[in-house]
Amino acid sequence: MTKNGHILHRELCISCGNCIEECYAGALKMVGNKTSVADLMEIIRQDIPFYQVSGGGVTLSGGEPLIQPKFTKILLQQCKEEDIHTALDTSGAVSWKVLKTVMSYVDLVLYDLKHISPSRHRKYTGVSNRLILENMKRLADYGVPVEVRMLIIPTINDSCSFINRAAKFLASLDNITTVRLLAYHRLAGSKYRRLDKVDTLPNVASPMDDQLQHIAGWIKRYDLKVVW
Q: Which fold has domain 36-227?
C-alpha cells in the first residue's frame, strides 16, 4: 500500500487467491477456476435438449484447449460417448502428435488462419506459421471438416495479394467447409490495462462490412464458401 494506492507485484503471484480474499472492496477477482470433466459434463448435459433442437453441441475454445491435451481429450471423448456433437477451436500451433490424439472425438475443427505470409505471421504473432499450415494439411488428409476463421486486420493481412494466396492454399484442401471472416476490433485493450501489460494491438479501425464483402468476393473465386 502506498499513498497512491495498492501496488500489485504480479511477478510474485502464485495464483493462490489470498489477495482476493483480503480485498474488501472487491477490486480483485480470479478469472477462471479449476474444474473436472465430471463437473463439466453435469453442466453440458443440462443443454442437451437445446442441442437436439438446434443441431448444435459443445465447442472447446480458449485460449488454446490443446495446452491441456489430456483434459481436452477426456472431455471430448466423454461427449462423443454421450452422442454430443463436438467442435474444437484451435490456433493449430501445437504438435501434430497432440492434435491427432483428439481427432477421433472431434466432429468439426474451427481453425485460425491469421496470415499466409511466413514473415508477416512471425512479425505480428512472434512465431512462424509453418506448423499451422502443416497441421491444416494433415487435417485434410485425416478427413476432419474444418471451418477456417480469418481475422481481417486492415493494412496487416487484407491486401488482395495476401487474401488470394490464402484462398489458393485453402482451395487445395478438400475438407474446408467454410471460411469465416472476422472483423478486427480493439476490445481486448482493456484486458492489457487490467494486467498491467503493454497494449500491442494494431491501432487501426475495424473493417467495414463493404470491405469484408469485397474480400469475400476474392475468396469466392476459389469456390470456397465464405461468411462474415
A: TIM Barrel (3.20.20)
Which distant-in-sequence residues (6+ apart) come within 8 Å of 89 by Cβ?
59, 60, 61, 62, 65, 110
Pairwise CA distance, residues 140 & 149, whole Å: 16
| Selection from 184, 175, 176 nearest residue 142 by Cα | 175
Kindly state the cell numbers that stand for 17. 487467491
Closest CA to 144 of 78, 99, 79: 99
Residues 64-93: pLDDT tens digits?
999 999 999 999 999 999 999 999 999 999
pTM exceeds 0.85, yes or no: yes
Q: How many residues does the chain have?
A: 228
> Residue 180: pLDDT above 90?
yes
Nearest alpha carbon to residue 166 among 182, 179, 154: 179
What is the C-alpha to C-alpha distance for residues 26 and 3, in angstroms, rounded to an integer?
20
Grid cell 433442437 is found at: 53
Cα–chain-centroid distance for residue 25? 34
Give the separation between CA 134 and CA 137, rounded to whole angstroms. Answer: 5
**CB-based contact 136:190 (threshold 8 Å):** no
Q: What is the radius of gyration, based on Cα positions, of the chain?
A: 20
Residues 6+ apart with CB under 8 A from 208: none
